[in-house]
Amino acid sequence: MGVEAWYMDGSDEDQRKPHRLEPNQPVSLDELKTLGVFYWKLNADIYETDPELEKIRKEQGYSYMDIITIHQDTLPDYEKKLKMFFEEHLHLDDEIRYILDGQAYFDVRDKEDRWVRIAMSKGDLITLPAGIYHRFTLDETNYTKAMRLFVGEPVWKAYNRPADNFDIRQKYVASLQGS
């Protein structure tokens, strides 16, 4: 099957709910690609020795890797971090996440500045391009374990919106014109 994504409603209720429009407006993998978002489905049970993951890491130059477990029992400042992850922001580098267990959502802005929610579960690997406005939240299961991948040394700096003055943001917006 692949990943499921949809346009979000404008409701302010709990960020961990699905927030689908009625009727649902799905967003395809091809549509995500036009935003620079790429997706792979892998076998998370063998992530330590998975040749497919190794191949992707080699091809993309993902030299750095760590694992974060997002749950109230494992993450210090859990509530504060969840709020922070859900602030709309961008990074100067690609964001690469591989869900090893549990579930979560990535929300990204489309070309018309509408939110697209991407439902992530075990085995989903996603890359968000540098310069895209996005945010992250758990779903109602309140748990995910994710591998964070990075080219070179990781830089965890997020720039909350508005951050349109960054070259990387302008490059990203320009790349949308062509797609």
TrEMBL record:
Keyword Metal-binding included in the entry's annotation: yes
Residue numbers binding Fe(2+): 89, 91, 95, 134
Pathway: Amino-acid biosynthesis; L-methionine biosynthesis via salvage pathway; L-methionine from S-methyl-5-thio-alpha-D-ribose 1-phosphate: step 5/6
Highest taxon of source: Eukaryota
One Gene Ontology term of the molecular function aspect: acireductone dioxygenase (Ni2+-requiring) activity
Keyword Nucleus: yes
Cofactor note: Binds either 1 Fe or Ni cation per monomer. Iron-binding promotes an acireductone dioxygenase reaction producing 2-keto-4-methylthiobutyrate, while nickel-binding promotes an acireductone dioxygenase reaction producing 3-(methylsulfanyl)propanoate.
Subcellular location: Cytoplasm; Nucleus; Cell membrane
A GO biological-process term: L-methionine salvage from methylthioadenosine
Keywords recorded for this protein, A-Z: Amino-acid biosynthesis, Cell membrane, Cytoplasm, Dioxygenase, Iron, Membrane, Metal-binding, Methionine biosynthesis, Nickel, Nucleus, Oxidoreductase
Region listing for Disordered, in residue ranges: 1-24
Quaternary structure annotation from Swiss-Prot or TrEMBL: Monomer.
Protein name per its UniProtKB record: Acireductone dioxygenase
